[in-house]
Amino acid sequence: MNSVVSIFFWVCLFLVFYTYIGYGIILWVAVKVKELRNPPEKLELPEILPDLTLFIAAYNEENEVELKMENCYSLDYPKDKLHIFWVTDGSNDATNDRLARYQDATVLFQPQRQGKTAAINRGMKSVTTPIVVFTDANTLINREAVKEIVKSFSDPRTGCVAGEKRIYTKAKDVVSSGGEGAYWRYESTLKDLDSRFCTAVGAAGELFAIRTALFQEMREDTLLDDFVLSLQIARKGYRIAYCKNAYATESASLDMQEEEKRKVRIAAGGIQAIWRLRPLLNIFRHGCLSFQYISHRVLRWTITPVSLLLLLPLNLLSMYLETTSVWLYQLFAAGQLLFYLFVVIGWILSKRDIKTKYLFIPYYFLFMNLNVFKGMAYLKNFKGVAVWEKAKRL
User: Fold this and answer.
1) CB-CB contact of 386 with 228 (8 Å)
2) SS3 for 210-250, per residue?
3) Which of 154, 158, 144, 160 is nearest to 45 (CA)?
4) Residue 370 located in a structural domain
5) CB-count burial class (<10 Å; 0-12, 13-18, 19+) for 36
6) Which single residue of 36, 54, 157, 217 has CA 20 to 30 Å from 225?
7) pLDDT, mean of residues 37-61
């Protein structure tokens, strides 16, 4: 009995460690070895810049239209080659009225709201440029973003370019912004290493681009359109390049209740995507991509959250049953209890503005993993309509 419990404890500990720390260490070492042997080539802009479409799928974004259009106009790219394209299906506020003031913006609209994936499928039928850049209405992208993305496409092996997502943070923050900001800095580092090793594993909808010819329609009930769209391209043998010089900035969720909406959607969409992209689990066929996909994504949305919750009870039970090396289990138990103490501190401080944002990380980490279970529950009762209530932001 004690050996079985101990084995399960060590397996759970390994999965949690590997998913959030070990994989990053392996990746960092692999990238250093690879770039030592084959230094990366510097990418250059093509002499003739291609036409591209800036694709914005929006629902009831009347308060964002003016700022987003100003941001589009500020981009360092020839105006005659940058085509601004909005799909505003189902919007019943003043979004379309405000967009009507901009004669150089193409707007596609239908009264029915069928969700973002359906809007992308419908809108892509009207895109004629060789490259399409997807961005959200409530995010601002840096002036050089489009040129940096085009530069990444100068490598013919690249089929998708993932931009960096940044969360606007203040000197003092609440957990929804401090925790999310820390998480995305960690994610950005992993994505950069993924890309340099072989390929990034998915793209964030705030800013990413694809070769239009590689677009493949998605099922309209797809919950995580950006992830599925980019992985479908990787499945065809193309790279997803990560471009940290092209970034989108947005404010964090208003509070943890609003952040929960996002995390449940992402978890449900991730689990749905694992099933629909299950051929990518075949490491004998997809090799490096499968290894990165399983390590960076699949474990986070399946086994690792379960392992995290089992870790403490298994640790305490092993400590009770084990007759040798009890001190080792006591050490791990003390570490876990300290972690949960910081979770409680983060929860107590969750509604306050504090300067030391690292206090939010344990709480946000546990919160993120718990929402995987809520995502599973949501997916179980999912009725096939990929329409979500937007999370309110700061």
Assistant:
1) no
2) EEHHHCCCCCCCCCCHHHHHHHHHHHCCCEEEEEEEEEEEE
3) 154
4) no
5) exposed
6) 157
7) 95
CATH number assigned to the domain comprising residue 242 = 3.90.550.10
CA–chain centroid gap for 106, Å, is 28
Handedness of CA 157, 134, 231, 199 (dihedral sign): positive
Separation of alpha carbons 275 and 209, rounded Å: 24
State pLDDT tens for residues 119-149: 999 999 999 999 999 999 999 999 999 999 9
Residue 284 lies in a domain: yes
What is the pLDDT, as a whole number, of residue 38? 93
At residue 377 the predicted structure's pLDDT band, cuts being 50, 70 and 90, is very high
Q: How far apart are CA 261 and CA 330, in angstroms?
A: 37
Instruction: Give the residue numbers spanning the domain of 268.
Output: 52-296
CB 215 within 8 A of CB 46: no
The dihedral formed by the CA atoms of 136, 142, 146 and 147, expressed in degrees to the nearest 10 = -170
CA distances from 308 to 2, 20, 315 (A): 20, 11, 11
| CA torsion, ordered 82, 87, 92, 96, to nearest 10 deg | 30
User: Computed from CA positions of residues 89, 92, 93, 97, in that sequence, does the dihedral angle turn out positive or negative?
Assistant: positive
Alpha-carbon distance of 325 to 327, in angstroms, equals: 5
Contact 211, 173 (CB under 8 A): no
Q: Which residue has the higher pLDDT, 53 or 357?
A: 53
Q: Measure the CA–CA gap between 297 and 207, rounded to whole angstroms.
A: 19
Q: How many domains does the chain have?
A: 1
Residue 44 is assigned to a structural domain of this protein: no
| Unique residue bearing structure tokens 């019943």 | 92
13 in any annotated domain: no
Q: Which residues of 258-278 are buried (b: 16+ CB within 10 A; e: fewer)?
A: bbbbbbbbbbbbbbbbbeebe
Which band of pLDDT confidence, cut at 50, 70 and 90, is reported for residue 56? very high
CB count within 10 Å of CB 26 equals 15
Instruction: Give the whole-number percent of the chain exceeding pLDDT 70.
Output: 93
pLDDT band per the 50, 70, 90 thresholds, residue 255: confident
Is residue 181 within 8 Å of 173, Cβ to Cβ? Answer: yes
pLDDT per position as a tens digit, 150-161: 999 999 999 999
